[in-house]
Design brief:
Layout: H1 5-13, H2 16-27, H3 34-41, H4 43-55
Length: 71
């Protein structure tokens, strides 16, 4: 039996390749940031944990940080 379109989309979202791509996009311009460096230090472990949390529907987003960029 085929998966529903929602299930297929969710599977693509939580795929390893997609999570790695999302990390790379999120980390862009943040290489000097301590929190980004800490996440990257154990990148594979952190992405695997995130993937598991998403697959099990246990993920909870953290607090947002607002900032202004001055050019």
């Amino acid at each position: 039996m085929n998966e529903s379109p929602v299930s297929e989309a969710f599977a693509r979202i939580v795929s390893w390749d997609n999570l790695l791509l999302a990390y790379r996009k999120a980390a862009k311009g943040k290489r000097g940031c301590e929190s980004a460096a800490q996440f990257e230090y154990q990148l594979a472990d952190n992405l695997a944990e995130l993937q598991t949390d998403l697959q099990q529907r246990n993920y909870q987003a953290g607090a947002y940080t607002h900032f202004y960029r001055l050019f």
